[in-house]
Design brief:
Oligomer: single chain
Order of helices and strands: HHHHHHHH
Structural class: mainly alpha
Number of strands: 0
Helix content: over 70%
Distance between the termini: 35 Å
Low-confidence stretches: none
Length: about 200
C-alpha cells in the first residue's frame, strides 16, 4: 500500500543518510512544499478549505501506516508530550488553511517569497523561547528577508497603488496577512517540535 511504500523509503533514507538526516528532511520538505504550492495555485477554482481538508485526510492516512510500520504508538504515555502534539497539530491546521488561501490569491512567485518568512519567525522564537544564540549573520539575514518581503508585499503605506487598483491588488493585503499568519503558525510549530525532542531526550 501507499503508506507502507512511504515508510520503506523513509527507513532507507534514515539508514543511508543518518549523519545528514536533518538536512535531508529539510530539503525534502521544501521540495514537497514547493510542488504542493504549485498545484494549489493550479487548483485556484477549488475552495482553499476543501484543498486543506483532503491534505489532512491524505496525511493522516500516510502517517498512520508509517507509525504502524515503525511500531510507534498513536498516543504517547506522557501527558506533556500529548499536549504538545495536540498544539502542533492545531497550529498546523491553522497554517495549512491560511497557506492555501494565500497561494490562491497571490501570484506563486510572490507568495513563495512572503511565505519564506517562516525561518525568520522560527529564528526569533528560538531566541525568545528556547534561549538559543544569535550571531551577526543571522541578524543580517533577518533584515534582508524582511526587506524582500516588503518589496514583494508592496504595502500601501510604502507603495502608492491607488491609481492602479485591480482585483489582484485588492486581494494582496488579505493574502499577505494570511501567508504571514501561516508562516507564524509554522514557526510556533517548529518551536514545539524542538520542545518535544528536548523532553524526550531528557528522559
Amino acid at each position: 500500500s501507499q503508506g507502507y511504500l512511504v515508510s520503506f523509503f523513509v527507513k532507507r533514507i534514515e539508514i543511508k543518510f543518518s549523519y545528514l538526516i536533518g538536512y535531508v528532511y529539510c530539503l525534502l520538505a521544501n521540495l514537497c512544499s514547493s510542488l504542493r504550492n504549485l498545484y494549489v495555485r493550479k487548483g485556484f477554482e477549488i475552495p482553499h478549505y476543501q484543498l486543506h481538508y483532503f491534505r489532512v485526510v491524505s496525511l493522516t492516512f500516510v502517517m498512520y501506516f508509517i507509525l504502524k510500520r515503525q511500531k510507534v504508538p498513536l498516543v504517547s504515555p506522557s501527558t506533556k508530550i500529548n499536549k504538545l502534539l495536540f498544539f502542533i497539530g492545531l497550529f498546523g491546521l491553522l497554517a495549512g488553511a491560511s497557506t492555501f488561501y494565500g497561494f490562491q490569491v497571490i501570484p506563486l512567485n510572490e507568495a513563495s517569497v512572503i511565505f519564506q518568512t517562516q525561518p525568520v519567525i522560527s529564528s526569533i522564537l528560538a531566541v525568545l523561547v528556547l534561549k538559543e544564540s544569535f550571531d551577526t549573520l543571522q541578524y543580517l539575514s533577518i533584515i534582508l528577508c524582511t526587506g524582500g518581503v516588503l518589496l514583494v508585499a508592496k504595502p500601501s503605506f510604502l507603495f502608492d497603488e491607488a491609481a492602479t487598483m485591480t482585483h489582484q491588488t485588492i486581494q494582496r493585503l488579505p493574502g499577505t496577512i494570511s501567508l504571514l499568519f501561516a508562516a507564524s503558525m509554522n514557526g510556533v510549530q517548529s518551536i514545539l517540535v524542538k520542545k518535544v525532542v528536548a523532553f524526550v531526550n531528557s528522559n
